[in-house]
Amino acid sequence: MILKGKVAIVTAASRGIGAGVANVLAREGADLVVAARDVKRLEETAKRLSAQYGVSVVPVQADLTRREDVKRIAEQAVRNFGKIDILAYNTGPPKPGAFLELTEEDWEYGVRLLLLSAVWITRDVLPYMIERRWGRLIYITSSTLKQPIPTLTLSNVIRISLAGLVKTLAYQLGRYNILVNGIMQGYIDTDRVREVAAARAAAEGKTVEEVIAEMGKEVPLGRLGKPEEIGELVAFLASEKANYITGSLILIDGGRTLCI
Ligand code: NAD
């Protein structure tokens, strides 16, 4: 167990990638604060992880686009555990669409969802990491940072700012032994991806499994990734095994992205 005794926050953790990350961090012995909007699902996750791995898991209902909700996440971590070692930042998917299809409200919401939520929670956790001269900030973003997807305008444009955040914070926080990295994942088999696949399957007269298989064929490893495979990378970056890794943006996409 490489994270025994550590306290980690995982955001957008009620399903998909966030839930996979929470699962692996708990397996590795970390006590957790898991946050998302769906408190019922979070409570079930918390119960399951505590029972399975013997760690403490605190669910916090929070809409990441609302500043006052985000504040509660770090507050609950400190109230329950007295410290924060690891932030595994994940967020909800932005609205898809071409530039001409998006409204100004979509842009404002997108900025709160994909950028400001990261800034807010980073501001909230940092004092506790600086105080103890130890911390890990891990931002789960998207392979669109490397290779934009034509219909994902908000993701392509806004998420790239997290690369700037990772590089800047890594530079500024190294002196406090706070390591800062980003993860750029490709296709991961989650509820969200299956919902998108279902819409495509209906439009093309195929089954969801056929669409998922077609997506897998775009990947050299021949399949979509699993949420827990993102969790394994987060756990490694959060552990003492990764003591010299900071300022890195790491692709995990089964080889799909071809640019260097
Ligand atoms: P998902 O829909 O399966 O899970 C999203 C999670 O975010 C859920 O727990 C949901 O409750 C939570 N969430 C959504 N909006 C929220 C909000 N405003 N406040 C708090 N929580 C919120 O999605 P996923 O596939 O796990 O994707 C997670 C992130 O990774 C998304 O930002 C997505 O765009 C990105 N991403 C996913 C893939 C993929 O293939 N799955 C690839 C690249 C990037």
UniProtKB/TrEMBL annotation:
Transmembrane segments: none annotated. CDD domains: BKR_like_SDR_like. Keywords: Oxidoreductase. It comes from the Archaea. The keyword Cytoplasm does not apply. InterPro entries: NAD(P)-bd_dom_sf, SDR, SDR_fam. It is an enzyme of class 1 (oxidoreductase). Its EC number is 1.1.1.100. The keyword Oxidoreductase applies. Belongs to the short-chain dehydrogenases/reductases (SDR) family. This is Dehydrogenases with different specificities (Related to short-chain alcohol dehydrogenases).
